[in-house]
Design a protein that fits this description.
This protein is 1% helix and 58% strand. By secondary structure, it is mainly beta. The protein has a domain of 83 residues: Sandwich (Immunoglobulin-like), CATH 2.60.40. The chain has a twelve-stranded antiparallel β-barrel. The longest helix is centred in the last third of the chain and has 4 residues. It starts with 31 loop residues before the first strand and ends with a strand. The N terminus is likely disordered.
Length: 352
């Protein structure tokens, strides 16, 4: 895809708190826009619901930032350009659709498009769809990605960015991507190649009338042969360039750097959940104790990345809790049980 030169747009900001509104669907042909993306520490997204108040005033310390640029070409393709990755979208009046992406290492083209958002965002709205992409890694390793995406506007409320500065009518969007990836140097062998699985949860906070989030929070767990091999966590704050100095606080240079790809507030925090899993009779039963109040989510997914069950709830600290996930009707075999507790991911293989 051809990119036109991108020139940073001038954002018109007054003396009061005005925030950049990135409206991708309404971009004019050959127009551009930009904002500043600052990496912040990962944090537990908390529970959903209405009238929520998210206090980010103490979470906006950052040691790294970059510019995000937006451009629309003559064919109507919108490019979101970040360091190391370009993503390409088409839009309708109310839908943002991912059609491809590329980085220095890989290129993806979606043969079955990946829905990204449907606007306007309304609390309680949700969409689910399958997607498929064909790609090339390092120029000579073809790969295929097949999965499901679920998007839900799960919360609405206000964001506290700094003392005496609160932004209202904020919508939070929870996106779950569950997918499998097969790769082989011979494209004819993709159908028999071993599969890698990924479960990714993304929380995004959107200002009113904007189509790019002000806060992003991502947890991604990778599996091989359905065994978890690693979890990465990221969080970002995305502000117009001349708002960064007002809200983003430079982190203390004397503090040690966080491990690569992990920005958890407490990377060595102890587990607050202690659980056992039973999967007899087509029902997955989780018995657990909690050392602290928690927001909990569970996913049951296949080796192909298909999500068959997703549940979320909050629970007070205590002992002797139990939850059952009815999986009757699913084909017999092995599945991934994914459990997220206050942003920390756990995984088990279950046989049904």
């Amino acid at each position: 895809m051809k990119l036109y030169p991108v020139i940073q747009a001038l954002l018109l900001l007054g003396t009061t708190s005005v925030y950049g509104q990135i409206n991708l669907s309404a971009m004019d042909t050959l127009s551009t826009d930009s904002l500043q993306k600052s990496e912040i520490r990962y944090f537990s997204p908390g529970k959903g619901g209405v009238n929520r108040v998210w206090d980010f005033s103490q979470k906006l310390g950052s040691k790294a930032s970059s510019q995000v640029m937006f451009a629309k070409d003559s064919a109507g393709v919108i490019s979101i350009i970040e360091p190391g990755r370009n993503r390409y979208y088409r839009t309708t009046a109310d839908t943002l659709i991912l059609i491809g992406s590329e980085s220095p290492l890989e290129k993806r083209v979606y043969s079955k498009v990946k829905l990204s958002k449907r606007f306007p965002l309304e609390y309680g709205d949700s969409i689910t769809g399958m997607y498929k992409c064909e790609g090339m890694y390092c120029g000579n390793h073809p790969f295929r990605e097949i999965g499901t995406r679920t998007i839900k506007v799960d919360a609405v409320g206000s964001i506290v960015l700094a003392e005496n500065d609160t932004v209202g009518n904020v919508k939070r969007v929870h996106t779950i991507d569950s997918y499998s990836v097969c790769m082989d140097i011979d494209s004819a062998a993709l159908d028999t190649a071993k599969l890698t699985q990924v479960i990714e949860e993304r929380y995004e906070w959107f200002l009113s009338d904007s189509q790019y989030p002000i806060i992003e929070n991502i947890t991604s767990t990778t599996y091989f042969n359905m065994d978890a091999i690693g979890t990465t966590k990221y969080a970002w704050c995305n502000l117009p360039d001349d708002k960064v100095a007002r809200y983003i606080n430079p982190s203390d240079d004397d503090t040690p750097d966080e491990p690569d790809n992990s920005f958890d507030v407490e990377p060595a925090a102890p587990d607050i959940i202690h659980y056992n899993v039973d999967s007899s009779g087509g029902v997955v039963t989780i018995t657990y104790d909690l050392d602290a109040d928690a927001s909990i989510g569970t996913i049951v997914a296949s080796h192909m990345g298909m999500v068959y069950s997703h549940r979320e709830w909050t629970q007070k600290a205590g002992q002797g809790y139990s939850v059952q996930i009815d999986c009757n009707g699913l084909r017999s075999g092995m599945y991934i049980l994914y459990i997220n507790v206050n942003g920390k991911a756990y995984s088990e293989k279950v046989i049904l």
